[in-house]
Every structure is written in structure tokens, then in C-alpha cells.
Input
Amino acid sequence: MSENENRTFICIQCPVGCTVLVERAGDAVRLSGNQCKRGEEYVMQELANPTRVLTTTIWIRHGTHPLLPVRSREEIRKELMKACVRELSRVHVEAPVKCGEVVHKNVGGTGIDVVATRSIERRNHEKIHPGD
Ligand code: SF4
Output
């Protein structure tokens, strides 16, 4: 954001979804439209260092579904998201997996682990190795 630029954000801290206008003139920053302090904190964080919880899916071998939904345990810097998603696209885990289980550690070198957001059972043996 340049020195004299206006910008709007949608606060995602609660379902109200206030539209917050940020007006900047030199070093002065003025916020309006937020209904509470959390909105101000959210926007200031977005301006300084935007972060998000990463949610995606990874491959799971021998599971009752081919993909396992996962999320990062903590918020990750937005600028690192693409690299983390790319890294996770190469990860394969083995079924069964329990919801909440760590399936990948230290994603993107952030120190943050990735956990399963649902349980997936293992397919029965006949379906994995037909004819055995
Ligand atoms: S500013 Fe406050 S009321 Fe508005 S969306 Fe954010 S948390 Fe909710």
C-alpha cells in the first residue's frame, strides 16, 4: 500500500463481515467501517503481515477416498502459501488416518504442522490387491 492510498478490506473475524476502509496519508492511517476493535486488529495485521490457515487436500494411499482434507495448525504467512501448497501436492500418506493427526511436519520450513481434518479408513485388502 503506497503512502496516499485508500483500500478496503472485508473483516473475516466474525460473520458480520464489516467492510473496513483504510485511508492513508503519509504515516497516518485512518480506519472506518469496522464495528469493533477486532476489525482494526485484523486490518492492521493484514497491512503488516497477512496470514491465513492453509486448507487443501493431499493424496492418501489405500484409503476409502483418494484425497484427505488437511489444514495447517496455525496461520501461515500469505506469501508462503503457494510454496506450501506445492509441497503438499507431493505428499502421500497411508490410510488409515484419524482426524487431527499430524500428516506433514514443518510445511514450507515454517515450523507449522499440517493435520487431517477428517478420518479416512483403510480400504479392505481385497480391493487393494485384487486376486491375492
Ligand atoms: S469489525 Fe468486528 S463486528 Fe465487524 S466483522 Fe470484524 S469482528 Fe465482526
About this structure: The CA atoms of residues 83 and 108 lie 7 Å apart. The chain is about 20% helix and 35% strand. The chain has a mean pLDDT of 92. Residues 11, 13-14, 16-18, 34-36, 38-39 surround iron/sulfur cluster (CB under 6 Å).
